[in-house]
Amino acid sequence: MGVTTMQDKAMAKDRSAPIVIAHRGASGLRPEHTIASYTLAIAQGADFIEPDLVLTRDNVFVARHENDITGTTDVAAHPEFVDRKRTKVIDGESHSGWFTEDFTLAELKTLRAKERLPQLRPDNAKFDGQFEVPTLAEIIALAKAQSKTSGRTIGIYPETKHPSYFASIGLPMEEKLAAELKAAGWSSADAPVFIQSFEVDNLKRLHKLTGIRLIQLMEAAGGPVDKAVASYAEMATPAGLKAVAAYAYGIGPSKAMIRNGDAAPSSLIADAHRAGLRVHPWTFRAENFFLPPSLKDGVNPVTHGRLSDEIAVYIKDGVDGFFTDFPQIGAETRDASKHPRQP
């Protein structure tokens, strides 16, 4: 069976209802990118759990929002690592802190995760210091174990973070990721896996190495750091989407590219579907801080507004899946929806 046929079958299978992608796990309720966060997300009905992947000094994939772990671990409280603090330029921006590529996996395992947004999510900060930094291998094992015990398939949706930067320091991601997923039994379009990236050439290299479905991420502004395309706006045109469809299964646009707050929707979903691409926007969050004005509850940025209403609008618009920090709300809204995805 060819890759195209497998991808066509996978597309047909996933048209029945939008998939719920747990963004960094149930990150609205637990510190992100921890086994606890992923496990809760699965219990709450997520179809996929999403690890952002970075590499250690000894070339092991771990899940962190960034390779800069200053804000997501207790590394600054470890005197034995005080001399590891660095200032680096990553994707054109200067960062000062501690970075995964300067630590072995064994060293990272001595650290503990902490909440990245404590001002918006103070309840999450109560879990600071309890959880390790997980490896990709541990996340794969969790998904497989939970699939077995729950009786439903739990997929993973990894993002390659800063692949050009890691390649520049001698830690290329593509072959290693394809090989690790293949060792797990996942190498074709019907595997319960999506690989996503904001870069273009990274995905094109992966397209040559694996049949796993690929998702081109897009921001509302700017462009990919590898300069393969001038801007995400250009990528989101009908011609740009046709080019994306040559190597990717779908797109992961910022939700603002579909609806800018309370504005009317753009044509992006329809244009992507015409190009044969699925659409998985990001990121749906419950706090007022992240919601459009019409869905806020009061003025406190921490208060939870009407996230379910926001998700329901995008489902009605025709999205094929969505990233959310609150997978239970996402799953319940999806299940209650009378608007299945467009073919």
From TrEMBL:
<comment type="similarity">
    <text>Belongs to the glycerophosphoryl diester phosphodiesterase family.</text>
</comment>
<dbReference type="GO" id="GO:0006071">
    <property type="term" value="P:glycerol metabolic process"/>
</dbReference>
<protein>
    <recommendedName>
        <fullName>glycerophosphodiester phosphodiesterase</fullName>
        <ecNumber>3.1.4.46</ecNumber>
    </recommendedName>
</protein>
<dbReference type="GO" id="GO:0008889">
    <property type="term" value="F:glycerophosphodiester phosphodiesterase activity"/>
</dbReference>
<dbReference type="GO" id="GO:0042597">
    <property type="term" value="C:periplasmic space"/>
</dbReference>
<keyword id="KW-0378">Hydrolase</keyword>
<dbReference type="InterPro" id="IPR017946">
    <property type="entry name" value="PLC-like_Pdiesterase_TIM-brl"/>
</dbReference>
<dbReference type="InterPro" id="IPR030395">
    <property type="entry name" value="GP_PDE_dom"/>
</dbReference>
<feature type="domain" description="GP-PDE">
    <location>
        <begin position="18"/>
        <end position="334"/>
    </location>
</feature>
<dbReference type="GO" id="GO:0006629">
    <property type="term" value="P:lipid metabolic process"/>
</dbReference>
<dbReference type="Pfam" id="PF03009">
    <property type="entry name" value="GDPD"/>
</dbReference>
<keyword id="KW-0319">Glycerol metabolism</keyword>
<keyword id="KW-0732">Signal</keyword>
